[in-house]
């Protein structure tokens, strides 16, 4: 009976506040999707290996890429030389590994330069409009009329082979590529500045600098990131094409395009010095294209 008459006291309510979930954003949702995208994971893995190979070539190939012996020229694949020897008797494997640095560096620097220049000018053109937009758009159309490789070939021919280095190739490619980024950024800025949150910020007295940098730029940056990521592979291929034509990177620097150009005349006698840099070039371009496609799908709300 005592057990029946016993009244259990109610438990005091817990004072712990429930954890508030952070509001989802475009970038967090995109990263969530990218981590589960097999195309992005595979492309990123390949790109990371290539970037590490470019930063630390000695770890992947301890052989000296400039140690050549003409007496051993065009020897085939062996245990000592995994990719054979080229026309000068240099180890092809070592040169392929060390050649990744120049090729990837040109691609990364050109993407950064075009993204910064084209993005800044596109932000200005889209935000201010009127005569500023007209002038910048007409200037961009002039550069659009020039084929990229042909224009870069002409610029590097004027500069001369002796002056052709990494930054020379980067500037030649960036001069003809920034209008694409400008046009994409301009369109994104025009769309973003007509949104309600920008109108509210303007009504509260936000300055033009705060409106453009704080409110418009973060919401207009996604398409520019996608284009710069996809263009990275295009610029690597462009550097290889210019070096192959003899106006890009020059010896003693090592570049995949330069290796392909040196090996083309003896391809039937020794195909390895041409095949392996071409394969690495194709894999590099493909990896960055895969990353760009995945990033585009993740950042485009229409594809969700």
From TrEMBL:
PROSITE patterns: ABC_TM1. InterPro entries: BP-dependent_transpt_permease (IPR050366), MetI-like (IPR000515), MetI-like_sf (IPR035906), OppC_N (IPR025966). It is found in: Cell membrane. The keyword S-adenosyl-L-methionine does not apply. Pfam families: BPD_transp_1, OppC_N. Residues 1-21 are annotated as: Disordered. Keywords: Cell membrane, Membrane, Transmembrane, Transmembrane helix, Transport. It is a multi-pass membrane protein. Residues 100-292 form the ABC transmembrane type-1 domain. The chain crosses the membrane at residues 39-60, 102-127, 139-159, 165-185, 220-249, 274-295. Belongs to the binding-protein-dependent transport system permease family. This is ABC transporter permease.
């Amino acid at each position: 009976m005592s057990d029946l008459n016993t009244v259990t006291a109610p438990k005091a309510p817990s004072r712990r506040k429930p954890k508030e979930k952070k509001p989802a954003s475009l970038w967090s949702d995109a990263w969530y999707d990218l981590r589960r995208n097999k195309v992005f994971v595979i492309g990123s893995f390949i790109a990371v290996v290539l970037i590490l190979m470019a930063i630390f070539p000695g770890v992947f190939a301890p052989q000296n890429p400039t140690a050549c012996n003409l007496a051993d020229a065009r020897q085939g694949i062996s245990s000592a030389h995994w990719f054979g020897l080229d026309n000068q008797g240099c180890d092809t494997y070592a040169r392929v590994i060390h050649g990744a640095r120049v090729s990837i560096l040109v691609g990364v620097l050109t993407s950064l330069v075009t993204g910064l220049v084209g993005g800044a000018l596109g932000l200005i053109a889209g935000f201010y409009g009127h005569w500023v937009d007209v002038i910048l758009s007409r200037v961009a159309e002039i550069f659009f009329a020039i084929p990229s490789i042909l224009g870069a070939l002409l610029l590097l021919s004027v500069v001369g082979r002796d002056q052709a280095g990494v930054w020379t190739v980067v500037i030649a490619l960036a001069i003809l590529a920034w209008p694409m980024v400008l046009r994409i950024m301009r369109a994104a800025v025009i769309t973003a500045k007509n949104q309600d949150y920008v109108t509210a910020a303007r009504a509260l007295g936000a300055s033009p600098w705060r409106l453009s940098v704080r409110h418009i730029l973060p919401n207009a940056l996604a398409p520019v990131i996608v284009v710069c990521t996809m263009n990275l592979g295009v610029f690597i291929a462009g550097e290889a094409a210019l070096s192959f034509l003899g106006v890009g990177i020059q010896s003693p620097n090592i570049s995949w395009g330069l290796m392909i150009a040196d090996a083309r005349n003896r391809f039937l006698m020794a195909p390895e010095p041409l095949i392996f840099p071409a394969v690495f070039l194709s894999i590099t371009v493909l990896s960055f294209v895969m990353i760009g496609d995945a990033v585009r799908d993740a950042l485009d709300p229409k594809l969700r």
